[in-house]
Amino acid sequence: VKPTPAPTLPPTPSPPPTIPPAWAVCKGAKADVVFLIDGSWSIGEESFRKVVHFVSGMVSAFDMVGPTGMQVSFVQYSDEAKTEFRLNAYRDKGIAMSAINQIHYRGGNTKTGMALKHTYEKAFSMENGMRRNVPKVVVAITDGRSQDEVKKSAANLQHA
């Protein structure tokens, strides 16, 4: 009687790749970033505060806030879009984070298409401090349920 061979062990999985910290990736980066935040009733005040905290944390990872680094703007929307502050409003990361944390929840209906249009027509404008030769980034946070048409405004923003 021959003994059965020992089962082959599965290969040891390789360790997950090391992800560098955000501050290392963002060091020296330049971009104009608009945080487009849903402030509608379906989000609610508690979730809105969590989003504000998240945005503040993202800004804290930026190496420099101001005209020689990252410029940030915050647009809250519901029935209307409101630019809470412009791209060129702050030259100091700490002051920008403080401004973000003081934004008040507004409530209202979810008009994401209108907010996207506001972003490419007004938030990304020379009057609001947009720079010509840096990447433009929109960080949109919503619960995904818009009460207006989104596709056309999204396409226009993408090609702006």
Automatic annotation (TrEMBL):
Pfam families: VWA. Residues 32-160 form the VWFA domain. InterPro entries: ECM_Assembly_Org (IPR050525), VWF_A (IPR002035), vWFA_dom_sf (IPR036465). PROSITE patterns: VWFA. Gene3D superfamilies: von Willebrand factor, type A domain (3.40.50.410). PANTHER family: COLLAGEN ALPHA, VWFA DOMAIN-CONTAINING PROTEIN. This is Collagen alpha-1(XII) chain-like.
